[in-house]
Design brief:
The complex is a heterodimer of chains A (213) and B (473).
Chain A: E1 14-22, H1 29-32, H2 52-55, E2 77-80, H3 92-100, E3 104-107, H4 112-120, E4 125-127, H5 130-142, E5 147-151, E6 156-159, E7 162-165, H6 170-177, H7 184-188, H8 191-200
Parallel strand pairs in A: 1-2, 2-3, 3-4
Antiparallel strand pairs in A: 1-5, 5-6, 6-7
Chain B: H1 6-14, E1 15-18, E2 24-27, E3 30-33, H2 39-47, E4 58-61, H3 78-94, E5 97-99, H4 109-116, E6 124-127, E7 141-144, H5 147-156, E8 158-161, E9 165-172, H6 181-192, E10 200-205, H7 207-210, H8 214-222, E11 231-233, H9 238-245, H10 248-252, H11 254-267, E12 277-282, E13 289-291, E14 299-301, H12 314-327, E15 342-345, H13 353-363, E16 373-376, H14 381-389, H15 392-399, E17 402-403, E18 424-427, E19 443-446, H16 449-458, H17 464-472
The chains are: A alpha/beta (213), B alpha/beta (473).
Chain lengths: 213, 473
């Protein structure tokens, strides 16, 4: 029954890789993955459609966009500005970024549902003030092969000779560092308590509560 | 931290335990699912050999990809048919009720939940859709989740969440003619910003909110997420209870109404509740709000000048410049007179019966402008049937609107209803993001449904109050 116990959940206490700057505030998930690419029943293959409309013209000619540049093709750390991932709750957005090759995102701020979706995929979303972010974006532009190291536990990012303090939401940090970011098995182990809770709620009909297994 | 608010009370009643991450595990009272964000979650369940834990607290509909013209099966578009078939199989296997188009109950997920009485005060409600905040209008704690969280809810009946702060938005005063709930929420987002609500839940209160019908309250809660707040709610009151009593669930189980009412009353925010923040808005100062840009926070009163980017806070200037270039608007001008190619009356924000009634009043006796493609997409099959019954369909069709079947339609352009090229749309929906309505050159101007009707007949953004004066004369 509990096949979920077999799922291996890696600890994500440290991520490193070269960066890619995606500039602009309020980049919404419709930009990250346009709705027409969501007519699918799996997430496979979404990577090639990440930021599609900003990357390609109507006749699929590549536009000027960091994700089209050769120098950023191996990048795995995205550096973004404020309110990144706002709008639609579509997990297709972080799924597309992850499948393009992104392992972590550093930004000024993130929309809540987007950050939660990233966490569910083991992708840290760490934050710093706007000035720090812009400096990092400039550095990435000048050093496309330069290594960025994210120490999730210590809340530090190191690039070149610089180490900056970043913020990782407390629950996110614990979940990533302790390897409990995939919550299904964890929450399933509380099934009895969940049933008790359901029985206490006046609006839940008895017949809606499953028998213990 | 807040204390004694509806949010605190509903949270406490649903908290199972605190997880090792510090997040709380919350029981989910109603899980709504649709065809776009759920199939991958069912796939993950199969991979892990898990079953749906609480199928009777789960309800499905189809809305995002459903065609609004020809709904005969198989759907003309293969991808749409595949998504629908997948959903049908998933709900059949799990024993989940499905308001599919053959039932007469189908519609946008945030329209059908309230219609059927599934949405109730004091419930926790989740759905893989950011506009789940809509259900907060009934005093539910309702928020959008991603697909991995849908997997969690399917497998466990619970979701892992961090508790947030509560901001009370006190809206006093009376709304003027032509100004409605949509304008209140557009004004709130304009003032507090698209990320002003991150980390907060919004409680909407005050005379102007209390005077709204349930549909108006839904329009406001619906767009909480556009202001960054994952959830928004209104405390339940007599208006809420009157709506609930008429729904299927309480018509079929009238004894439940009396049984549950004390619970509903008990979870409303206390008089002396403590909030993390309070914001005041005077409804009587508002005029119809329209957007000039490409985020829902870029709004302006219809007679007010469009702001110059350099007059905005520094962090908003770049976005504003790009938005004005995309929309082809100039600072100092008003949006009044902005040319419109498409008028879209629909979406989970504004496609309920009273929305269509108000728009029809404007349309009555007028004709859609020759250069405008105008369409009405009712929020649900029930809204559609009721509107047809009272003659609204005839009013719209006689004026030159297309009358279509229920679905999300041109709000996000996942079916055949899309903007073409650089068409400009007057839209009663919730998002004006670049590309949102199906064309990356497309331009969306958000507004209330009466304003959409006015734009449809004049071919440009129009202050509906001017048309109303003519009607009176």
């Amino acid at each position: 029954m509990s096949g979920s116990d077999e799922v291996e959940i890696p600890e994500v206490d440290y991520v490193s890789g070269s960066g890619i700057p995606i500039r602009g505030n309020d980049i919404d998930t419709d930009q990250i993955i346009p709705a027409r690419f969501m007519k699918v029943v799996t997430f496979d293959g979404l990577g090639e459609f990440a930021f599609f409309d900003l990357r390609f013209d109507d006749d699929d000619t590549p536009k000027d966009h960091p994700m089209n540049e050769d120098r950023f093709q191996d990048s795995s750390v995205m550096v973004v500005n404020a309110n990144f991932g706002c709008g639609s709750s579509r997990e297709h957005a972080p799924q597309a970024l992850m499948r393009w090759g992104i392992d972590a995102i550093i930004g000024e701020s993130f929309a809540e549902i987007f950050a939660g979706n990233c966490l569910a995929l083991g992708i840290p979303t760490v934050t710093a003030d706007s000035e720090t972010i812009e400096e990092l974006q400039d550095w990435v532009d000048a050093n496309p092969d330069g290594e960025i190291e994210i120490d999730v536990e210590a809340e530090e990012v190191t690039y070149g000779d610089t180490t900056i303090d970043v913020t990782v939401d407390e629950a996110q940090r614990k979940a990533l560092v302790d390897g409990v970011w995939d919550t299904t098995a964890l929450m399933k182990s509380n099934a009895d308590a969940v049933r008790e809770k359901a029985k206490e709620l006046p609006y839940v009909d008895d017949e809606a509560i499953p028998e213990p297994k | 931290m807040s204390e004694g608010t509806l949010y605190d009370k509903v949270w406490d009643r649903h908290k199972v335990t605190t997880l090792p991450t510090g997040q709380d595990q919350l029981f989910v009272g109603l899980h709504l699912i649709h065809e776009v964000t759920s199939p991958q979650a069912f796939g993950m369940l199969r991979e892990r050999d898990l079953e749906v834990a609480y199928p009777k607290l789960t309800h499905a509909t189809v809305d995002h990809i459903v065609p609004t013209a020809d709904q005969s099966r198989p759907y003309e578009e293969d991808a749409a048919e595949e998504m629908m078939s997948e959903l049908e199989e998933n709900v059949r296997e799990a024993g989940i009720d499905f308001s599919d188009p053959t039932t007469g109950d189908q519609g946008i997920v945030h329209v059908i939940g309230p219609e059927q009485g599934l949405t109730q005060p004091g419930k926790t409600i989740v759905c893989g859709d950011s506009h789940t905040s809509t259900h907060g209008a009934f005093g539910a704690l309702a928020f959008g989740i991603g697909t991995s969280q849908i997997r969690d809810v399917l497998a466990t009946g619970t979701v892992a969440m961090e508790k947030q702060k509560v901001r009370k938005i006190q809206v006093d005063g009376e709304l003027g003619e032509g100004v409605e709930a949509k304008d209140i929420i557009l004004e709130i987002i304009r003032r507090l910003g698209t990320e002003g609500g991150v980390g907060y839940v919004y409680e909407y209160a005050g005379e102007a909110i209390e005077n709204l019908n349930m549909e108006g309250r839904m329009s406001i809660c619906n767009m909480s997420i556009e202001g960054g707040a994952r959830a928004g709610y209104v405390n339940p009151d007599e208006t809420t209870y009157e709506w609930l009593e008429e729904t299927d669930y309480f018509q079929e189980n009238p004894e439940k109404f009396d049984e549950l009412k004390p619970y509903w009353e008990s979870i409303a925010s206390d008089e002396d509740a403590e909030y993390d923040d309070v914001v005041h808005i005077d409804a009587s100062e508002l005029e119809p709000v329209v957007t000039w840009g490409t985020t829902p926070g870029q709004g302006v009163g219809v007679t007010e000048p469009i702001p110059a980017p350099e007059d905005l806070p520094e962090e908003k200037q770049d976005t504003a410049r790009r938005a004005q270039e995309h929309m082809r608007v100039e600072p100092g001008e008003t949006m009044e007179g902005y040319n419109i190619d498409v008028a879209f009356l629909g979406s989970c924000t504004n496609a309920r019966l009273p929305d269509l009634r108000r728009a029809a009043e404007i349309v009555e006796g007028r004709q859609v402008d020759d250069d405008v493609r105008a369409m009405v997409v009712p929020g649900s099959q029930r809204v559609q049937a009721a509107a047809e019954e009272e003659g609204l369909k005839d009013t719209f069709e006689e004026a030159g609107f297309e009358w279509r079947n229920a679905g999300c339609s041109m709000c996000l352009g996942m079916n055949e209803d899309q903007l073409e090229g650089d068409e400009a749309s007057a839209s009663s929906s919730n998002r004006n993001f670049v590309g949102r309505q199906g064309s990356k050159e497309g331009r969306t101007v958000l507004m209330n449904p009466q304003m959409v009707a006015a734009a449809a007949v004049t071919g440009e953004v129009t202050d509906v109050r001017d048309l109303q004066e003519v009607t009176v004369a």
